[in-house]
Write a structure and sequence with these properties.
By secondary structure, this protein is an alpha/beta fold. The chain contains 13 helices and seven strands.
């Protein structure tokens, strides 16, 4: 997810049980890679293998070039984004906008696979709109082109993130192709992950928004699928340590100024999962220093933990 799954967050998710964490979407136009945003998105220093880099674009030649360059830089998996519903992406005939042009999809898939010396995966939605669900067609094209695995979000581009994800189309796709299919959309718990896997027959589930503020969801799902047992919710002590570790990595990765700003949204997501945190969230968003951010989080949790111990 652009703006979310940066290197610090990917590393944290891997540590907490994610089997694979794909990079933020990177433009296929290598002429733009000199920008600060692209340089950070292309930074995989010390990242847990295998490194999976997601590329986006609508020109087969550019997508092929971006593939070769990312592999040269160490990518072990190339992931093609044909699922992003954002207007600024779709306006450039990229992301899920590509689903309207099946010939262009085929051209891009062939160009990327032929340019890659590593596996290529693909992320799609079920179609452009509810009246044009061509996910099965795209999935077959992907398999024929040599795509190694396919992730499918259970909404069309027109649906955005509104309404509920539907899994009938994903189940149909699973039954029509032999490559692994990953089900995505509204999977917010271990129980839901099991339900979706059983219903669709998918090889795995992919988690996006549900990990914001709850990166431990990966270990909960992995443990439940492996054992049938539900892990307890993390204690306040553990949430504090996870959050402070994440906060420190954001500050180190982005630097003081940018790190403080980006930390606000991540900490906000954590706090949304905790009762009676609204007042602290508003205070935290006004802090301008990395040191003060760290101290304020530590102190707020310490007060909560102390009150809980006293009440017990």
């Amino acid at each position: 997810m652009a703006g979310v799954t940066d290197r610090p967050f990917r590393q944290l998710c891997r540590q907490l049980g994610a089997g694979l964490a794909v990079s933020e979407m990177v433009t296929s136009d290598t002429r733009l890679w000199g920008s600060r945003k692209s340089r950070l998105r292309l930074d995989h220093c010390g990242e847990t293998a295998p490194v999976s880099v997601q590329i986006a674009g609508g020109d087969p030649g550019m997508m092929a070039e971006a593939t070769r360059e990312n592999v040269r830089r160490g990518a072990k998996i190339i992931d093609i984004n044909m699922g992003c519903p954002a207007k600024k992406v779709c306006k450039r005939a990229a992301g899920s906008a590509l689903l309207r042009d099946e010939k262009l999809v085929a051209d891009i898939l062939r160009a990327v696979v032929q340019s890659a010396s590593v596996p290529v995966t693909l992320k799609i939605r079920t179609g452009w709109c509810p009246d044009f669900r061509n996910g099965i067609t795209i999935a077959k094209m992907a398999e024929d082109a040599g795509i190694a695995a396919l992730a499918v979000h259970g909404r069309t581009r027109a649906c955005g993130y509104h309404g509920e994800a539907e899994f009938d189309t994903i189940a149909d796709i699973v039954s029509r192709v032999k490559i692994p299919v990953f089900a995505n959309g509204d999977i917010t718990s271990a129980d839901r992950a099991r339900e979706v896997l059983n219903y669709t027959g998918a090889a795995a589930v992919m988690i996006g928004r549900a990990a914001q503020g709850r990166p431990w969801i990966f270990r909960e799902i992995a443990h439940f699928l492996a054992t049938g047992e539900r892990l307890p919710e993390p204690t306040l002590d553990e949430v504090r340590e996870i959050l402070l570790t994440h906060l420190g990595e954001l500050h180190r990765f982005y630097g003081e100024l940018m790190g403080v700003r980006i930390a606000r949204k991540h900490v906000g997501w954590y706090l949304k999962t905790l009762a009676n945190s609204e007042s602290f969230r508003k205070t935290f968003f006004q802090i301008e220093s990395a040191e003060v951010q760290n101290a304020s989080v530590h102190e707020w949790f310490e007060r909560r933990i102390t009150r809980g111990a006293q009440a017990a």
